[in-house]
Structures are given as structure tokens and as C-alpha cells.
Amino acid sequence: MQYFNTLPKIAYDLEGKEEFNLITDIFRFFKVRDGIVDEAVLLDKYEVKDGETPEMVSNRFYDSVYYHWVVMSVNKIKSRYYDWPMSQVQFGKYLKDKYENPGAIHHYEIDQLSGPTASLDNSHVIEVNADYPNAYPVSNREYEERLQTKKRLIKILNPEYLEDFVQEYQRIITR
């Protein structure tokens, strides 16, 4: 199933001359219910490999590139350019373009004193001022790498539920 083929068509007057054309309503938005993305039975965790695209992940799990939109919807990804992890080559260029000195200090932080003392997503640290006791520096590069790591950790809808998910999507989007 190709994503844009499922979207409804709308009549649109491109030039204001009352000559209407049918176009795809690309502004129609589909949001996965919050309860579904938290359901462990329906979802598996996956770490996106370097250079992997939503289409490649879709093909790996669903034997078709056309379910890339399922991968993106389940993970609340609206933009493949800003919300999807970059390849190492893209990341290097991004760092160079964004920061004059990628090794410079971005901020300081400490480990939290209660609760978890380690985490994959660095949720166990607290950003603080440079003069805070035991504060340690985090470079621009490390900060951006952490953001990419968070983006790499995605959820995959169990293929067993793919057909039900697609049917629910079609029911909702064509209302």
C-alpha cells in the first residue's frame, strides 16, 4: 500500500480562476493512539543502523518498502529529515555546519542523586551551571550524538498486527 494513494482527494483552485483540480490532501494527518505506542505486545524495539532509511526498515520487517509510513507513524516521526537519525556522513556535515568548534562545551551536567543512575537516553543526568559541584562538561559533539542515539532507538509494529493497523488507518483517514 502506497501512503499517498490512500489519502483523500480534494478539489483545489490552483490559480483562483474557479478551475478546480483534484489533488491529494497531503495535510490529512494520522496520529497513532497513545495507548498503542505503549503496548509492549504490539511493538518491538529496534536500533536504526547507519544510513538506514524508513523504507529499508519497512522492507526488513514488512517485506515491502511501502510501509515506511507505518514505521514513521508508530514513532511519531513527522519529518524524515529532522526526526530520523542521520548517517555518519550526514552527521559529520551537520556538525561542521552547525558548530564552529564541535569539541567546545555545550553545557554542564551531573548525575541525578536519586532514581536511575544510568540510562541509554541520558535521562539520568541533570543540566547545571558550570560552577555546580561535580559538574562535568558535555561537548557539542556529545550533545548532538545523544540526540541521534535517541532517534536511532525506535519501535516497530509487530508484523502480525500490520494488516489491522493499515485497516484502522484507512478507516480513520477516509472519514
Description:
34% of the residues lie in helices and 20% in strands. The radius of gyration is 21 Å and the shape is extended. The chain has a three-stranded antiparallel sheet. A two-stranded antiparallel sheet has the order 1-2. Strand 1 and strand 2 form a beta hairpin. Helix 3 crosses helix 4. It folds into two domains: 97 residues, no CATH class; 63 residues, no CATH class.
Strand content: 15-25%
The CA-CA distance between the termini, in Å, is 18 Å
Let me know the average pLDDT: 85
What's the total count of β strands? 7
**Helical residue percent band:** 25-40%
Assembly level: single chain
Q: Please work out how many helical segments DSSP would assign.
A: 7
Q: What keywords describe this structure?
A:
2 domains, 175 residues, alpha+beta, 20% strand
Structure described in brief:
By secondary structure, the chain is an alpha+beta fold.
Question: Helix and strand layout, with pairings?
Answer:
Elements (H helix, E strand, L loop, with lengths): L2 H4 L2 E5 L6 E5 L9 H4 L5 E5 L6 H9 L5 H7 L13 H11 L6 E7 L13 E4 L7 E4 H13 E5 L4 H12 L2
Antiparallel strand pairs: 1-2, 3-7, 4-5, 4-6
Helix pairs in contact: 3-4
